[in-house]
Amino acid sequence: MTASAKLVLTVVSLALGTSSIGLGQAVAPGPLGALSRENLSKPRPKPPFELTGTWLHDNKDGPNSWRFVPPTFKLTPDAQEHYDAGQRAAKEGKVYRDDIGQCWPAGMPLIMTRVWPIAMVQLPTVIYMTSAFMNSLRIIYLDGRPHSHPDIVVPSFNGESIGRWEGNTLVVDTKYFPGHHHWLDQGGASIPASDQLHIVERMRMINNGNVLEIEYTMTDPKSWEGEWKMTKRWNRVDDDITEVECWPDLNDHIRSTSSSSQIR
Amino acid sequence: MTKKIHILIAVALANLIAFSATAHHSPAVFDRTKEVKLVGSVKEFRWSNPHSFIELDVRNEKGESDTWAVEMNPPNYLVKAGWTSKTVKPGDNVTVMVNPLRTNEKVGKFVSITLPGGQVLTENAPSPAR
């Protein structure tokens, strides 16, 4: 290729490139990647605690310890229908819409209280949490970015989490859920999590950094009235997570998931 | 006696909690007040996450073979109860106790196994699950 031909190609490609974003249009830079060197090296105050480690939900208080449903509540008519269907199924020894059993993600907040360890890695800009249960990934950004614009965010079962430090507490705001196949309990109180679910977690460390305590405040105007509040704990454990996935043939063998005890 | 009952309740509760939340599905479908004894030949044993399982060929009253699906905890729990991936293999003649489904299908939640040599194993460590 001659030098003049290369010049023509360059000009054409530049013209096509600029026309695709509009001449003269400013393109706002997105946030720096959480793992970019520039972002990681920004000066920031020392965080008050370090989550890096493996954690296991404390279930010593029995099954209610992993549920995210308060003792009393007032549901919306739509959510009440699901709840009533769940109660009818339970009376027959069946379960109503156990979507986790069909390999849908547990999602927030239930993913936090599976009896599987959670590996947490804390960096100055981000916390990565990987639950051993289906290796579900949860990302909490700490680099000061705001929530994504609702028109571009991709809803997800663990939602979009933005954290900020308030004294000795990490406050995490989570929203943007898919609004389908997502529940506040499994096989018990069948209360759906809608796309309006909003979770605020206040995380603090107690017992010399060996116990993580999280106070939850949850609203979901499509499913219940007012705020639900509850507090749960996790213990630091010396353990590893492993690969856990819902293989396509899993439920061919775990046949309770396709038995007549399932109400879909 | 009372102390023994308390210990039994504590172990049962620990087992319930372990399977309730390690399972990828709700365990509420199993009738924990009943145990069914299955005597048969191992068709398949899979050592995998999130569940291990045994498929067991069991002869019914008519002399025909039924395949029972027996759902188990993940290997992490089984190891602590004395299992390895080679504890059972296809063709082994074993006795398995299960909590059955309430719907009378041939599916059960594993309780214990008697191996060909007579050894009995459960799926949870003797101490409460971690």
Number of helices of chain B: 2
The helical percent of chain B reads 10-25%
Helix/strand-derived category of chain B reads alpha+beta
> Number of domains in the coordinates of chain A?
1
Rg of Cα set of chain A: 23 Å
Mean pLDDT of chain A: 89
Count of helical regions of chain A: 4
Distance between the termini of chain B: 26 Å
Structure description:
The complex is a heterodimer of chains A (264) and B (130). With 264 residues, chain A is an alpha+beta fold. In chain A, 16% of the residues lie in helices and 25% in strands. In chain A, the strands form two sheets. Chain A has a nine-stranded mixed beta barrel. In chain A, strands 2-11 form a two-stranded parallel ribbon. By secondary structure, chain B is of the alpha+beta class. Chain B has one domain: Nucleic acid-binding proteins (OB fold (Dihydrolipoamide Acetyltransferase, E2P)). Chain B has helices spanning 2-22, 75-80; strands spanning 36-46, 52-59, 65-72, 93-100, 107-114, 120-121. In chain B, a hairpin with a 6-residue loop joins strand 4 and strand 5 (107-114). The longest helix of chain B is centred in the first third of the chain and has 21 residues, at 2-22. Chain B is globular. The chains are: A alpha+beta (264), B alpha+beta (130). The interface between A and B is large, with 41 and 36 residues.
